[in-house]
Amino acid sequence: MKLNRAKATFGRHETFPLRYGWLPKGFEALTDDPEIFARPEDAMIRLGVGRNMVNAIQYWLQVTGLVTFDGGRGKPTRLGTTLLGTRGDPYLEDDATLWILHWLIASNAESATGFFWFFNRFPMPRFRDSDALRAIGEFSEQELKAPRSASTLKSDISTLLRMYAAEAGRTDEHLDSPFAQLGLVESDPDAGFRSLRGARPALPPVALQFALAQRFGAQPQQPALPIRVVLYSDEGWAAPGAAFRLTEDGLMTGLARVIEQDPRSYELRDTAGVHQLYRRGEVIDPIDILSQHYRGRAAA
After folding, report:
1. Domains of the chain by residue range
2. What is the pTM of this model?
3. Which CATH code fits 205-299?
4. From CA 159, how far away is CA 114, in angstroms rounded?
5. What are the pLDDT digits (tens) for 156-169?
6. For the purposes of burial, counting CB atoms within 10 Å of the CB of 102, is it exposed (0-12), middle (13-18) or buried (19 or more)?
7. How many CB atoms lie under 10 A from the CB of residue 95?
């Protein structure tokens, strides 16, 4: 999803990071009762959380693209059914699922603009929360041309850091939020936090393949993307290399693993001195990638 300054949103998560069981529980509740979120009191009982957490669960279901809402009625998307259905990964036991959910959040420039900004546009590898707050304020004012309140932006930065950084001495929230496992943001004793690019050998090839399929699908008329564009955010698009915090060598290793697993998907070429990733044939359906992955996992 491309950044659109007219549709940018911040702070809709009620300051609650995405917790471990929320997506499966919310998805199951909505599958059983499509209007459960339109009745907050019933949702509170069904999900065992407070009203603000009900709103947060609904938000995260939407941001990840697992569910759409129309007039209070929720409907699982094809992505949601594939990812969390009985043939997918309903208990989030597969490491690839977590990386894919991260990509879905970090690439959602419209509904999770602060998260998109941090993973695709924030340049500081080591920073304090005050640095991030100042930078996102400048982004909102200068690029979006729509300044947000400091409290709203602070809410996004605080929620993101609590969601991704396992801070020493904090045992409750980072255990509830699985994204700290990815190591994309870490506490830094000198700078406050660090979010460094690396080789990411633990990144499952299917997660990178899914992100690439979505990226190519966003511009189906383009048969190739320069490696620079896959590595860094370009013209408002999310970049897999940035979202997964990959170095160039790490990205190239990841691409080699994707091509090795499916030689028909992509190939690397140098065209007029520009290193590019070409898709072979039609745009790959990201949902088909997930379906094939979970089928293989079930058969293993």
Report:
1. 205-299
2. 0.95
3. 1.10.10
4. 10
5. 999 999 999 976 55
6. buried
7. 17
